[in-house]
Write a structure and sequence with these properties.
- This protein is α+β, with helices and mostly antiparallel strands.
- The protein has one domain.
- Strands 1-4-5 form a three-stranded antiparallel β-sheet.
- Strand 2 and strand 3 form a beta hairpin.
- Helix 2 packs antiparallel against helix 3.
- The longest helix is centred in the middle third of the chain and has 22 residues.
- The radius of gyration is 21 Å and the shape is flat.
- The relative contact order is 0.17.
């Protein structure tokens, strides 16, 4: 019969899987359009609380985007006309980004409106890049 060394048994007993899990959210300090300092509104930095890729909201948003892409692919394979417009892609991305955004601080615009505005794409890109790096969470 195999016996576990007492030190190994103590280590196993002290092991907590939650100690290795990513946090649910993290704060992104948005940089200005030049990328040389924080984005300030009224002298206050703009911060966006982003949900980690492991949250239900993020997983559901990713699933929704993938399901839409799969549906378009299968429709095309069946010979149906697939109209994927720039507007459709913008809307899908904005909805995903809004789903992964918990709060926006010092930028009084709803998340969906922010991410739907292509002229604010430089903010959207910062959030997407931040969200894509597990090390942030």
């Amino acid at each position: 019969m195999n016996q576990i060394h007492p030190a190994a048994a103590a280590a196993i007993a002290a092991f907590n899987l939650a100690d290795f899990e990513a946090r649910d959210t993290a704060i992104l300090e948005v940089q200005n359009i030049k990328g040389d300092g924080p984005l300030l509104v009224g002298g206050q930095p703009v911060r966006i609380e982003v949900r980690s890729p492991g949250t239900r909201e993020a997983l559901n948003a990713q699933h929704k985007n993938e399901a839409a892409a799969t549906a378009r692919t299968f429709a095309g394979m069946r010979g149906k006309s697939v109209k994927e417009t720039a507007e459709t892609k913008l809307t899908e991305r904005a909805e995903k980004m809004a789903a992964i955004t918990a709060t926006i601080e010092n930028f009084p615009v709803p998340a969906l409106e922010l991410y739907s505005n292509p002229k604010l794409g430089w903010i959207t890109e910062q959030v997407a890049t931040f969200h894509g790096d597990w090390a942030n969470f």
